[in-house]
Amino acid sequence: MRRVVRVMPADPEAAAELQSWSQQQDTTLDLSGLDASGADLTGAHLALGVFSGTGLKRTTLVDTDLYRAHLEDAVLDSADLTGASLAKAVLDGASLRSANLTRADLSGTKLTETDATSAVLRGARLNGTVLAKTCLRGADLTDATLHNTSFDAVLDEETILQGLTGSVFGPAHVDEGGSVRELAGLELEFWLESRGASVNVLNSPPGTVTFYAHIDDEFPRERPAGIVRRRRAGQSFRDEAFTRNLRWEPTEYLRLYELGHNDSDHVEITEEEANRFVTRITAKLGGSQPL
After folding, report:
1. Mean pLDDT, to the nearest integer, of 226-252?
2. 261 exposed, middle or buried (CB, 10 Å; 0-12, 13-18, 19+)?
3. Nearest to 17 by CA among 25, 268, 8
4. Where are the alpha helices (DSSP H) in 146-259?
5. For residue 250, what is the enclosing H or E element?
6. What is the pLDDT of residue 290?
7. Which residues make Cβ contacts (< 8 Å) with residue 25, sequence separation at least 6?
8. Dihedral angle at the C-alpha atoms of 189, 190, 196, 199, nearest 10 degrees?
9. 31 CB contacts (<8 Å, ≥6 apart)?
10. Are 227 and 274 in contact (CB under 8 A)?
11. What percent of the chain has pLDDT over 90?
12. Which residue, among 138, 221, 238, 142, has the nearest Cα to 185 in the 3D structure?
């Protein structure tokens, strides 16, 4: 089937490469170092393509397949990637300033030191994505989803997070009037929630989480009936129990215990003991990696 390039770029070398690619079968497009800005590649199959250092400003890449594509140091400023698949692509050092990534799939994508200032990521899938030193100042992540995502990104007060859901590994960094501060654990979770997100931060700084085990004569410390944890951020805290759903969920247990409304006994345990309980229950119930 003939490959179609709807609009060729102005740069003659890039246009010639695209023309050659469009007339061949079973070839991978390589535009490394060329300037393909302004091209229209709507719906193109560009999986495994090589675009390292490629100029792609204002390029139309709507619904394109860029699975495992190499886009290191590519310039995609103001490009339209609506609905594009960038799963497992590499965009380290790329520029995505004001790019439109609405509903794009960036699952497993690497964006290390990527500049996504003012990028639109509404409804984008960022599951397992590596956001390492990624600039998201002024970006729009409305209704985007995250799952086990590395969120070492830089955000600011203009970053839109309404409806963002999922789970991340922190820390993140927040630019507040030019002063950047690090947020991790429950503090990061609170900050995201204050901006309309519902995101679980999976890791916490040392010394900010305390674990407890439910024990009695039938269930000794070595094999407790259940465990709970208290995560803290300053004077605030959040209590969670590890449930049969194989995830940490909110609980009133510790608060009721402190108020004398709970007759069950509990003891403080180490994180190692808590991890052993999680591993044992997960294996017993046949689950996968817990959240």
Report:
1. 93
2. exposed
3. 8
4. 185-193, 253-258
5. strand 248-250
6. 57
7. 1
8. 20
9. 14, 17, 18, 49, 50, 51, 54
10. yes
11. 87
12. 238
**pLDDT for 45:** 94
Q: For residue range 149-201, list pLDDT tens digits in order.
A: 999 999 999 999 999 999 999 999 999 988 999 999 999 999 999 999 999 99
* Rounded-to-integer distance, Cα 45 and Cα 264, Å: 60
Encoded tokens for 129: 């994505």
pTM: 0.89
Task: Determine the Cα–Cα distance for residues 254 and 29; give it in Å rounded to an integer.
Answer: 59
Encode pLDDT of 258-284 as tens digits.
766 666 678 999 999 999 999 999 998
Q: What is the DSSP string of 36-74?
A: -TT-B-TT-B-TT-B-TT-B-TT-B-TT-B-TT-B-TT-
Q: Tell me the β-bridge partners of 165.
A: 145, 198
Distance of CA 286 to the CA centre of its chain: 26
CB 104 within 8 A of CB 82: yes
Q: How many CB atoms lie under 10 A from the CB of residue 257?
A: 18
Residue 1's pLDDT is: 45
Residue range 39-63: mean pLDDT, rounded = 97
> Locate tokens 């050659």: which residue?
20
Residues in a beta bridge with 50: 30, 70
Query: What are the b/e assignments for 200-222, b being 16+ CB within 10 Å?
Result: bbbebbeebbbbbbbbeeeeeee
Across-strand partners of 130?
110, 150
The token duo for 79 is 């490009």
Amino acid letter, 194: S
